[in-house]
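Input sequence (94 aa), recorded before submission:
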Amino acid sequence: MAQRRQDLLSKLADRGEDVVGKLSDMPAAQRLLDAGMQLKDRVDDLQKRVRGLDALERRVAALEKKVDQLTRPARATPKRTTAKRTTTRAKKPS
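Predicted structure, token format:
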């Protein structure tokens, strides 16, 4: 029975190799394979760009926070004025 399974698997492997060989000779199959490879490359490029967007979003959020802090109206703090100092000197006893 093990021999029978082996024969079946051998036959399937041979048929698979034949099919792959015939597919490689077909121009339409070659174009399909090329399109699949281009799609893979484009998806890889897109993934790299999307990963870069996370860093950009963090930078934009930090910049927006800084802009908000800079555009807030300043608190109304009274200006300090320097008072004129008058010194009173004690007269020397004569």
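Checked by second reader. The chain has a mean pLDDT of 82.
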